Amino acid sequence: MCGIIGYVGSKDAVPIIVNGLRKLEYRGYDSAGIAAFGKSGFFDVVKQKGRLAALEARLTDYPVEGFMGIGHTRWATHGEPSDVNSHPHLGNQGKIAVVHNGIIENYKQLKERLERKNVYFSSQTDSEVIAQLAEYYYNGDLMETVIKVANRLEGSYALGIMCVDAPDILIAIKKDNPLIIGISEHGQFIASDVPAVLEHTNKVYYLNDKEIAVLKKDSVQFFNIDKEMIKKPLETVTWSPDSAEKCGYPHFMLKEIMEQPKVLRDTINSAIGNGKNKNVMNKLDCSKFNKIVITACGSAYNSGVVAKYVFERLCRFPSIEVELASEFRYKDAVIDERTLVVLISQSGETADTIAAMRESKSKGAVTLSIVNVVGSTVSKESDFCLFTAAGPEIAVATTKAFSAQLALLYLLAIQFAVKLGKLTQESEQELLKEITALPGKADKILEQIDDIQKYASTCVGYKSIFFIGRNIDYATALEGSLKLKEISYIHSEAYAGGELKHGTISLIEEDTLVVAISNCERLYGKIMNNVEQVISRGAKVLLISGSAEKTPDERISMIRLPAVFELFAPSLSVIALQLFSYYVAANKGLDIDKPRNLAKSVTVE
Ligand code: F6R
C-alpha cells in the first residue's frame, strides 16, 4: 500500500521518478506527488489528487527538475485523498521532505506534542508527523536526525528522506514495510518494489528493518540504527524489464492470465528434479508434524482452501486447518513445535500474514512460506520458503501468482504424502504426470478466449452472480467469486452446492446468474441437482466443467475444460473464471488493473 521511489544520480530525476511511480501505481492510486531538489536550492514539490496521469498533467504545467528526488503514489489511510494529504510531506521550514509507506500508530501523540511547540500541520495524514519531527530534531546531521525520528515512531514505515542542506544525499529506512535499493550506472534508487527500477537495473539490495541506506550519486552505504556501518549482499534480480510492461495487452491482468502456462511450467520445474524448491521441500522433516495450519489473506487464502482438500486426500493427515491470517493472528492458536504453519503470499508483505508468521514462530511452530517476491519479509523471516515463479504481478487482482501457488501446494502435498508413506512410487509418478500436463491444458482453456469473451459480454447486467461447487470445486468457487466482485463491482458470493437449500436459495430469482463448477466426477449429479433447483427459480446458469459427459441442454451455457485429475482441477477452472471476470469488467469499461479502493500489497492492517 502506497509506493515510494527515490533517485539520486546524473540524470534528471523527475521523468525517472514518474516512470517508477507508473510501475508502483498498483500499490495505491488515489493521489501522487514528487519532490525534486532543483537548482533553486529548495525542493520543488508537485502533488495531485487522482491517478498518476493527473500528476503528469500537472507536471506539464509546472515542470520541475533536479538530480535528486522522491515520489509517492498513495492509498489513503489517514486523511481523504486530496492534494494536501498527498506526499511528499515537508516540515514547516521546508528543509526536510519525506515520502512514507505504512502507518504511524503514535502519530496523534507526536503531533500534539509538536503542536504544543508551535509546529503547524497542514495535512490530516499520519505521515506529515515524520517530516515535522525530523525538522524539529534536525541539528545539521541528517542521519542522526533520521535515527532519532525512527526511535520515536511506532507502527510501520518505509521512508525516503531528503534535506535541503544535503543536496546530494538521499536517506532511506524501513520497518515492517518493503524497501529496496537499486544500483545503476547513472545513479542510485530507493523503491517499494523491484519493477519500479527494472528498466534501469537488476542489481538490488534488500533493506532489513531499521537498517539505514545513505545514497549518493555514485555510492550507497548502509548503517544500523546505532550508526555503525554494515555490509549487505548485492543481489541480482532475474525478472526481465519486459515482465513489468503490458507488451501490447490492454491490461496487465489479461497479460498475466495469458502467461499462466509458462508460469505453471516454470513453477512446476522449480519443484521437481533438482529445482531449488525441490531442495527446500526435501529438507522438511514431515514426520515431525502432527498439525498443519495454512494461513493467508484473500486469494492466497483461497489457494490454501484448495490445498486443504489436496493434503487431506493425498496425505490422510489428521489435522489440517486453513485460517484467514487476519483471524489467526488474534486467536491465540493452539500450535507448537509440532505444527507446520504454511504462509501463502504473493507479495510476502501482507501485514496480517507477516503477523501470523511472527505469532507462529513465537509459539515454536515451524513456518514454511510460499511467496512470489524475493527479498520480501515473509520470504526472509519464515523458516523455509518456496518461491513461485510467476514473475512480477502488476494487476491488483492476482491471477498467475494464484496459479503458481496452487502448483507448489500440490507438489508439497505429494512430497508430504510420499514422506509419510501414503503414496506408492507409482501413484506419485502418476500424480506428477498429471501436474506436468497442466500447462498444456491451461493453453487449451486460453484457446477458448473468444467464446468466453462473447459469453461474458452478455453478463454485465446481472445484479448478483453466485458461484457454486462441491468439495474442491467449492474452493475454486471462492476464488471465482472474489475475482469477479473485485474487478467488476458486481455483487457475488460463493457457496458449497449443498448449502444452497440452507438459506441462499432465497436469493435466487429471475436474472440471477449461477456459475456452477463441476470437476468432481462423483459429484456431478449432485451439482446438476443444484443447477436444476436454481433454474426452476429463474436463474441463468454457466457450467464450468471437465466432467460433463455431454453438453447439457440449451438452458445451460458451458465452458468445457480438458479432463483433469479432480484434485488439480482448480488450476484449470480458475483460468476460465479469471477470463470470465476479466471480460465482464472489460465490457463494463472498468479500470481493471486498479479496481476502486484496492491496493495490491496490503501492508497495513
Ligand atoms: C485478490 C488479491 C488479494 C490478495 C491478498 C493477499 O485478487 O490479489 O486478495 O490475494 O491481498 O496478498 P498477498 O498474496 O500479497 O499476501
Short note summarizing the structure:
This protein has 605 residues and is an alpha/beta fold.
How would you explain this protein's 3D organization?
This protein is an alpha/beta fold. Helices cover 35% and strands 23% of the residues. The chain contains 19 helices and 25 strands. Strands 3-2-4-1-10-9-11-15 form an 8-stranded antiparallel β-sheet, with helices on one face. The chain has a 7-stranded antiparallel β-sheet with strand order 5-6-7-8-12-13-14. A hairpin with a 3-residue loop joins β9 (180-183) and β10. The radius of gyration is 25 Å and the shape is globular. 56% of the residues are buried. The model has no long low-confidence stretch (mean pLDDT 94). Residues 297-300, 345-347, 350, 353, 397-398, 482, 486, 601-602 line the site of fructose -6-phosphate.
Summary tags:
eight-stranded antiparallel sheet; 605 residues; binds fructose -6-phosphate; seven-stranded antiparallel sheet; globular; 25 strands; alpha/beta
